[in-house]
Amino acid sequence: MEFEPVIGLEVHVQLNTATKIFCGCSTRFKADANTQTCPVCLGLPGVLPVLNEEALRKAIMAGLALNSTIATYSKFDRKNYFYPDLPKAYQISQYDKPICLGGFIEIKTGDAAKKIGITRLHLEEDAGKSIHSEDPGKKVSYVNFNRTGVPLAEIVSEPDIASSDEAYAYLQNLKTIMKYLEVSDCNMEEGSLRCDVNISLREKGTRPFGQKVEIKNMNSFRAVKMAIEFEIQRQTRALSGGERILQETRLWDANRSETFSMRSKEEAHDYRYFPEPDLPPVMIDQAYIDAIRSRLPELPAQRQARFVAEYGLPPYDAEVLTASRPMADYYEAVVKEGVNPKKASNWIMVELMARLDDPENVQAFNVQPLQLASLLRLIDDGTISGKIAKTVFEEMARTGGDPASIVKEKGLVQVTDTSAIEEVVDRVLAGNPQSVADFRSGKGKALGFLVGQVMKESRGKANPQMVNEILMKKLS
């Protein structure tokens, strides 16, 4: 029997508001434990939560970017469960009336394009964080409530994902969209983007879903991919052996690269949802939604299509450059200086990106867009060769210096004097008689060798086009 996976993702995106979703406590990361709390987020008796409008606005922005329908009427509910880092023993979330419904994200794996449906996006508050002692002789746990009440947008996909590659592409696209919107920094290491996987297997070609398993505790997209692949293998072995898959929550063990059982999975009714009595319904009009829509930035897919149409870039170049908003901004700043769009793309993708750990940090790179544009103009006007330009770029990246000044200080101006180049060519031809003979006997590769020798002899300063022309003239 052949099986196929059915996968859905639940992604929690921490919205980057200055204060929490229902109180005025700061959301700053890495503050001293339990210093960013108040009676509201700790759920003390007699307090009343108040919705942070900025959290609402950013959730609507995210929903619009995900092609969702924004509800003009939504409400909050209490999701009841006990957990050590949940001070109220319930979480304020949204159940049957979320702020955003439907939508989709377009992904591409290989040459195949696909739409992954969005079920819903709802707002909720985050829980605190349990910290367990690593000292074997000290069996104690602590709770830090600073994160309690931080606003989350939970984005639930339809079970449209059919492989670990598709899940990875979905997460990458979702993260890129959220960062373009600037609603979250999506830093998985700091917990501002967290993902749970729901996965089941069914007999290939059939419609009914198999028993669903949820996987938690993944702190990278690579971990999500690996966990899915492990779980597909585990469930395939179990079903092939006649075992029954249990509905449960499993955790990912990064050290052993496997999942393990955490608890049996609760059904929705176990949470005893009921409307939050201390918060009124959220009622917004279409004008409010339209005002937010009008301020949306150009999104990655739109920008990618424009780079192809406006700058004549290959789709691959456009995809790489628009994967990060700061990098796309950097590229456009270079091109607006009048340089060739494809040449700018090549230099950014090959020379610049090789020196960056993260494209998001390009604004802090020593070579600013105006400097790169100046360097490319030096190549175009024949002041330096492409080879020398790489040396200059290396120095620019190290010091932040101006390209024209570096060329002048280091004496790197390209040699275009015909007689000077002829002298070098004559020396190279005299010193390489075998290569000369090879070329004249029809071995075309010999010319490339001779050109290389001339460039080496001139320390890369000779104009390559002139070198080729003079060599061909003398060899014929």
- What spatial form do the alpha-carbon principal axes imply? elongated
Round the Cα radius of gyration to an integer and report it: 30 Å
How helical, in percent, are the residues? 25-40%
Number of helices: 15
Spans of at least 5 consecutive residues whose pLDDT stays below 50 are: none
* CA(first)-CA(last) distance: 71 Å
User: Structural class, from helix and strand content?
Assistant: alpha+beta
Strand content: 15-25%
| Count of domain modules | 3
Query: What composes the largest sheet?
Result: 10 strands, mixed
Number of strands: 17
User: What is the averaged pLDDT score?
Assistant: 92
Describe the structure.
This protein is an alpha+beta fold. The chain has 3 domains: 3-290, no CATH class; 297-409, no CATH class; 418-475, Arc Repressor Mutant, subunit A, CATH 1.10.10. It contains 15 helices and 17 strands. Strands 1, 2, 6, 7, 8, 11, 12, 13, 14 and 15 form a 10-stranded mixed sheet that branches. Strands 5-4-16 form a 3-stranded antiparallel sheet, with no helix packed on it. A hairpin with a 2-residue loop joins strand 7 (104-109) and strand 8. Helix 5 (300-311) packs across helix 6, helix 9 packs antiparallel against helix 10 and helix 14 packs across helix 15. The longest helix is centred in the middle third of the chain and has 20 residues, at 221-240.
